[in-house]
Specification:
It is built from 22 helices and 27 strands. The chain is about 40% helix and about 15% strand. It has four domains: about 230 residues, 3-Layer(aba) Sandwich (Rossmann fold), CATH 3.40.50.2300; about 190 residues, Rossmann fold (3-Layer(aba) Sandwich), CATH 3.40.50; about 50 residues, no CATH class; about 210 residues. The strands form eight sheets. It has an eight-stranded mixed sheet with strand order 10-9-11-12-13-16-17-18, with helices on both faces. Strands 1-5-2-6-7-8 form a six-stranded mixed sheet, sandwiched between helices.
Length: about 850
């Protein structure tokens, strides 16, 4: 088989050692063949050519790298590198054919035979995609010739085991998967579409990426497939499915598309999107999307698209192989001219398509025929056709050539001791075999001219990361490639993924506002997400947080409880510190109660003074002066003990509050009970022959007073010794406040104190009620009855009120009960007597009392 005149695309440069290169410069769309006769190379006349002008830079990057090595006296001295470049045409048959050509002589395809014209092939670089790489590997693996691919997706899992001669000058694609997930998560894009080629690589991409996205909380809104380039090259009917996908993408509301496809495949898709929009006279909805491309994609314009507005890709993101500026490459491109005498079969078609000119059939003469002068400048071309700075894929080829050069240098250096030619010390370049290069290639590690470290890992993959590139397109077909972040697996954990949002330019339809890619709007702080039945987990309803719980971030699955001592604000998006709740002297309620306490105490002290001053008057003497003084003094203490309930609780006030209240009130009620019993016994003792006379006297009154009070004192002492009250912070009773209170310690003993006090009051009320009809001259039972009725009523209403209030209002209820009951006793018992003593002294005589009794 000889080269067809229709396939002149090869580039040969002789050298002691040859590097093979399978480029993807041209693609051919093949019409269906009938196969009614034996196929020959003549069928190639029925092919249609599609040129990728930007791909020509890959060829030039290899030529430039070889030139650098050959001109470097410290690298492979006295050994020259050559290369032989063929095109795969994105076609399996042509890839196999041209791989056999690399394994054969320069002109004839005769593998497995060596002759004088046999190339000393050491390594092959290629191909662009995994399918082409696999086609090549099936042949190169037989000869154990190292193959360095610059594709992104590996052709199979565990590639190093199945293809030990296969290397990749690209990082592990797992880093790209992780980078895509991190990028989507960074911008909170949780409702995205995935578009892949309909082949094994597309299936692997989906099967690998989707679990990672789901793990990061990202839902898949759509999964689309378009025919791979190899499938499309077989028949035009494959474009119908591309048209269907274009129509679907034009109408879907999904704003972010993750795309894993070759450049030419995406180009076909965009063509169909434009065609659909033009036929339907509809706007290009696909323009209002964010494209996230894998490293396979490189923005370019094919000859079929040169007049097409490519604004659809404005603001797109690409995961690109990390690259740096290579010194000297731009100058190398500036000296390139098609009139140069070389065996480059790619330059003339490239020149004609890039500059839209043509040469006549006389290639040797290269006379201008329709404008091509050969002096056109590459820097005048728009970036969509050709770039003067090295692209990512060209950079990988450049690194691959230098990796080969350094590996060969190490191999020759290790053999130099044993293979030195006489007199001149030169090594023989012809006695090395390709299979011997593997051990040196695996362990290679060097810094290239751009300053980047180049080495392979255990899987034969480049130890490197990915750059995140933001594409800015302009109406004049020019563009700007802006690095906005990266995925560096060798960096520190918190620096493995980086994004500079300020450097990003979004598509004009987004007005420089971060696009939203969500099933529904955010659940803002104060709300939590609630899953919608039957919908993906990215689709949810928003429910407000309950009292005491907040959510301080968007899209929280659950509201969380505020820390102890804090409460949720009105919007349920922040926790505020609770204020202390206790009855203070400084607030209005505390000040008012304190005023009434002091006022009541002054009145009680005044009454006590009046009775002491008029101690010898009949009305004072007639009602047991000692009990009267004791009652008035206890009432004075009752009023004053209310002050213990106002102010910040502490250990002392908590000890004294309820115990002082219980003992003092027991003394007061005991005084009333003693007075009532004394009156009743005195009346009964006046009857002839009564035996009650021996019980009448001060001894009985003192016994009742001390006995009843002692019992209450014993209960309080037991309370303080076993479970005394203590200061306590109640965090939960009130939403916005912390109640600083006195915990009663033993609730049982607290109610025992109240119960015993109620028992004394009940007995006093019953005895006074029985004596209410005794003559007024001899007793005050009627007034005691009224006072105990008020007393019992206040404390009966106290219990439910006390239990139904919290905080300082509960304390205020108890203070009010103390004041009310004490005031009732003071008013009902002593007001009538003070009236007579002060206003009606004429009634305060013994004769008047006797006369009234008669």
């Amino acid at each position: 088989m000889v080269d067809s005149p229709h396939f002149p695309h090869q580039y040969y440069q002789s050298g002691d050692l040859t590097i093979g290169f399978m480029v993807t410069q041209y693609g051919y769309l093949i019409y269906e063949l009938s196969f009614r006769r034996n196929p020959t190379t003549e069928y190639l006349e029925e092919l249609k050519l599609i040129s990728r002008t930007k791909s020509y830079q890959r060829i030039l990057s290899l030529a430039f790298a070889v030139k650098e090595i050959n001109e470097n006296p410290e690298l492979l001295p006295n050994v020259t590198l050559g290369f032989h470049i063929y095109d795969s045409y994105t076609n399996a048959r042509m890839t196999h054919q041209n791989t056999l050509k690399l394994l054969s002589s320069h002109k004839t395809v005769v593998p497995n035979f060596k002759c004088n014209k046999q190339k000393n092939l050491m390594v092959v670089i290629g191909g662009l995609d995994s399918e082409i790489s696999l086609y090549m590997a099936t042949l190169l693996g037989i000869y154990k010739i190292p193959q360095i691919a610059y594709c992104i997706i590996a052709p199979m899992t565990d590639v190093k085991t199945h293809l030990p001669s296969f290397y990749r000058m690209v990082p592990n694609e797992e880093y790209q998967y992780a980078g895509i997930a991190q990028l989507l998560r960074h911008f909170q894009w949780t409702w995205v579409g995935i578009l892949t080629m309909d082949d094994d690589n597309g299936d692997k991409f989906i099967q690998t990426l989707i679990p990672i996205l789901l793990k990061h909380g990202i839902c898949i809104a759509l999964k689309g497939k378009i025919p791979a380039t190899a499938q499309a090259a077989e028949t035009f009917t494959s474009f119908e499915s591309i048209l269907d996908e274009a129509i679907y993408l034009s109408n879907t509301s999904v704003q972010v598309l993750v795309v894993n496809a070759e450049t030419i495949t995406i180009s076909f898709l965009i063509i169909k999107i434009y065609a659909y929009a033009e036929v339907k006279d509809t706007p290009l909805l696909a323009i209002g999307k964010v494209w996230v491309m894998t490293a396979q994609w490189d923005f370019s314009v094919d000859t079929t698209q040169m007049d097409m507005d490519m604004q659809v890709f404005d603001g797109a993101f690409t995961f690109a192989i990390h690259l740096n500026k290579v010194p000297g490459f731009r100058k190398f491109l500036q000296t390139l001219r098609p009139k140069s005498k070389n065996e480059d079969g790619f330059i003339l078609p490239f020149w004609e398509m890039a500059f839209r000119c043509s040469y006549n059939d006389s290639i040797d003469g290269m006379e201008n025929n329709n404008g091509c002068s050969g002096e056109e400048k590459l820097e005048s071309l728009p970036g969509t056709l050709f770039e003067m700075s090295m692209t990512g894929q060209s950079y990988t080829i450049y690194n691959a050539v230098h990796a080969i050069g350094h590996s060969l240098h190490k191999m020759y250096s290790s053999r130099q001791k044993h293979r030195v030619m006489p007199n001149r010390g030169r090594v023989s370049p012809v006695k090395v075999q390709a299979w011997q290069l593997h051990s040196f290639l695996r362990s290679i590690s060097f810094n290239n001219s751009a300053g980047d470290r180049v080495s392979f890992d255990d899987n034969g993959e480049l130890v490197s990361g990915f750059d995140i590139v933001n594409w800015v397109l302009f109406p004049n077909q020019s563009f700007l490639r802006v690095k906005v972040g990266g995925m560096d697996p060798q960096a520190l954990p918190n620096q493995k993924f980086t994004v500079n949002e300020e450097a990003i330019t979004w598509h004009r339809t987004f007005n420089q506002v971060l696009p939203l890619a969500r099933c529904n709007d955010h659940c803002y702080p104060g709300y939590s997400r609630k899953k919608k039945e039957g919908e993906p987990f990215c689709c949810y309803d928003c429910t407000p947080c309950p009292d005491g719980k907040i959510s301080d971030q968007n899209d929280m699955d659950n509201c969380f409880q505020c820390p102890e001592g804090q409460f949720s604000n009105k919007n349920r998006d922040n926790c505020l510190p609770k204020t202390l709740n206790f009855l203070s002297f400084m607030e209005l309620l505390g000040t008012t109660l304190a005023f009434f306490i002091l006022f009541s105490s002054l009145i009680t002290a005044a009454v006590l003074g009046i009775f002491i001053k008029n101690k010898d008057t009949p009305i004072v003497k007639a009602n047991n002066r000692e009990l009267t003084y004791s009652l008035l003094f206890s009432l004075l203490l009752c009023f004053l003990c209310s002050l213990l309930f106002i102010g910040r609780p502490n250990i002392v006030t908590c000890y004294l509050r309820q115990t002082a209240f219980g003992i003092i009130f027991s003394v007061a009620v005991s005084c009333i009970l003693a007075k009532t019993i004394t009156v009743v016994l005195a009346f009964m003792a006046t009857k002839p022959g009564s035996r009650m006379r021996k019980w009448v006297g001060k001894r009985l009154a003192i016994s009742v007073l001390l006995g009843c009070s002692t019992i209450q004192a014993i209960i309080c002492a037991l309370w303080l010794c076993t479970a005394a009250p203590f200061p306590h912070f109640d965090m939960h009773s009130l939403t916005e406040e912390i109640i600083l209170e006195c915990n009663e310690g033993s609730v049982t003993l607290f109610y025992c104190v109240l119960g015993y006090l109620g028992f004394l009051a009940t007995v006093s009320f019953v005895v006074a009620f029985q004596a209410r009809k005794l003559p007024d001259s001899f007793n005050e039972a009627k007034f005691i009855t009224f006072s105990m009725l008020v007393f019992c009523s206040v404390w009966l209403s106290f219990v439910p009120s006390y239990l139904s209030t919290k905080g300082k209002y509960m304390v205020a209820v108890e203070i009010f009960s103390i004041l009310s009951s004490s005031a009732g006793l003071l008013g009902c018992i002593f007001a009538p007597k003070c009236y007579i003593i002060i206003l009606r002294p004429s009634l305060n005589t013994k004769d008047q009392l006797i006369r009234r009794n008669i």
